[in-house]
Specification:
The complex is a heterodimer of chains A (117) and B (111).
Chain A lengths: L4 E3 L2 E4 L5 E6 L6 E7 L6 E7 L2 E5 L7 E4 L6 E5 L8 E8 L11 E2 L3 E5 L1
Parallel strand pairs in A: 2-11
Antiparallel strand pairs in A: 1-3, 3-8, 4-5, 4-9, 5-6, 7-8, 9-10, 9-11
Chain B lengths: L3 E2 L4 E5 L4 E7 L6 E7 L6 E7 L4 E4 L2 E6 L4 E6 L8 E8 L5 E3 L3 E6 L1
The chains are: A mainly beta (117), B mainly beta (111).
Chain lengths: 117, 111
Amino acid sequence: DTGVSQNPRHKITKRGQNVTFRCDPISEHNRLYWYRQTLGQGPEFLTYFQNEAQLEKSRLLSDRFSAERPKGSFSTLEIQRTEQGDSAMYLCASSLDPGRSNTGELFFGEGSRLTVL
Amino acid sequence: DQQVKQNSPSLSVQEGRISILNCDYTNSMFDYFLWYKKYPAEGPTFLISISSIKDKNEDGRFTVFLNKSAKHLSLHIVPSQPGDSAVYFCAACSTLGRLYFGRGTQLTVWP
């Protein structure tokens, strides 16, 4: 399977615990995005990487959130001291540089669903 | 700052008829507009896109129309099939490659 891979698919945790999600993008894609989706909403942008450089972070990304892409390949999204409001589907997507894509398409993984009790 | 808006949360259509999903946007600098389809417990999958320099793009049963002066686009599905039942997201792409999504429209196609 050469699509975007995310794990774990589901995570249930208690409030105050730390969680980490991993994303493996499509291998030739140098752009990697993290989005969050809650019930009744569309995906909301969190952050993105160009290779290993984190180029933009949304104001939705509080200090408890940190994302890394250390070697420009896979990425991790860590949430510290989780709160019930963090419960959501966390989506990872990858793409070519915008200049090399003629559709603007992002390729999404199946998401990691977080439930904070 | 909801730059992409889908004002109809749901649409119900009989099999074989046309489904029309609508989307409005506020930023005239968007380069591409895309439609994604999402089933429960899965990530969004790309359906069709249109460049801001075009007004129509067709792919099989799916056609997207863009009206730049009205900042409006629509997705037409003809004929609609039960397997088309899903949530459809409209998205707009900036020059940075980031996508801005609407809240989605749940399409239900009934036999």
